[in-house]
Amino acid sequence: MSLQVLPPMTYKKALLLINSKSRQGEKLGPEILKASRSLGLEVIHLPTDPCDFAKRIEEYQDRVDLVMVAGGDGSQNASLPGLLKTKLPLLTIPLGTSNNLARNLAISLDPFEAMKLVQTGSVKTIDLGSVNDQPFFAVAGMGISIHVNQTVPSKLKRKIGKLAYVATAIKVFAKYRPFHAVIERSGEKPSVVRTLQISVCNGRHFGSGLMVDGKATVSDGVLHLFSVEVKKWHNLLSAIYAVHTGKHGKTGPTLILEGKDFTITTRTKHRIDVDGEISTQTPAHFKVLPQSLKIFVPPQTDQVVP
Questions:
Q1: pLDDT in tens, 178-203
Q2: How many CB atoms lie within 10 A of CB 144?
Q3: What is the side-by-side strand order in the sheet with 197-201?
Q4: DSSP the chain
Q5: Domain segments of the chain as ranges
Q6: What is the value of pTM for the model shown?
Q7: Residue 226 Cα distances to 63, 205, 207, 247, angstroms
Q8: pLDDT digits over 111-128, tens only?
Q9: I need a labelling partner for 182 at 20 to 30 A (CA). Which of 25, 36, 210, 225 fits?
Q10: 306 falls in which pLDDT band (50, 70, 90)?
Q11: CATH says 4-127+291-297 is which class?
């Protein structure tokens, strides 16, 4: 299924929400505000903590015709309840480390280039995912990734980027114990796994530019599940190659499933990271929310490009 194109219109009034706590938010905030006004927009800018993004969107819905959110995937996710309720279109300004929402839509990771989409892009509708009734843009996961995200050194991230996550994952792997899970989906036999990581993705990208499936898009009407079943350290290298390329062999250490819904149960409760923020736990019910959100995308974007 291709992205649904909405009729063109002129956008004049924007609500700008900036997460000053994001990697570049505090540094670039004033420049982003200036640049947004240079695009000919009447801008309402509110210094707001991401936990209040949705509330601010609802408060100002009658005074604006689009919402601009500057921050990482967690900040974009914080805006979702407000966007879904008001039906306002989103212009995402990527300021985070992973920026999977932007990657999935081939939006420039340069925040100032991304902002130009209000003039050069088009508004289309995309799918969302949901876990335990919490919507997400890109990914919700459990397992080793939570431990990696909590232990990866900030200095290392700034120095070598996403390779910092790979280095930390190898280090954490030596101490992390796999967990048992049962994965159910409608009309299919349950999968019983002993895994290090389960991620459920909307679109192809998760982590920091990793890929669950090279063919996945945010408009294909399904979610894509990825489970890492690594027994020895050399299997971890195979798994790392698979998620960097989006190519998962049938006999490799990764299990790939797709479906409109999944239910995951575990022997003990496991926390779930939703677009970068830990906000729920197992048991978990996942489902796709087809064609749910309006968002600015680059010209001629139909399917997600590599």
A1: 899 999 999 899 999 999 899 999 99
A2: 24
A3: 254-259, 223-228, 197-201, 139-143, 271-274, 277-281
A4: -PPEEPPP----EEEEEE-TTSTTHHHHHHHHHHHHHHTT-EEEEEE--GGGHHHHHHHTTTT-SEEEEEE-HHHHHHTHHHHHHH---EEEEE-SSS-HHHHHTT--SSHHHHHTHHHH-EEEEEEEEEETTEEESSEEEEEHHHHHHHHS-HHHHHHHTTHHHHHHHHHHHTTPPPEEEEEE-TTS--EEEEESEEEEESSSEETTTEES-TT--TTSS-EEEEEE---SHHHHHHHHHHHHHT---TTSSEEEEEESEEEEEESS--EEEETTEEEEESSEEEEEEEEEEEEEE-TT--SPP-
A5: 4-127+291-297, 136-290
A6: 0.86
A7: 42, 11, 12, 12
A8: 999 999 999 999 999 999
A9: 210
A10: very low
A11: alpha beta
Pick the CATH number of 136-290 from 3.20.20.70, 2.60.40.1400, 2.60.200.40, 3.40.50.150: 2.60.200.40
For residue 214, what are the CA distances in angstroms to 27, 61, 227?
34, 37, 16
In tens, the pLDDT along 153-166 reads 767 766 766 677 77
- The b/e string for 227-252 (b: 16+ C-beta within 10 A; e otherwise) is bbbbeeeebbeebbebbeebebeeeb
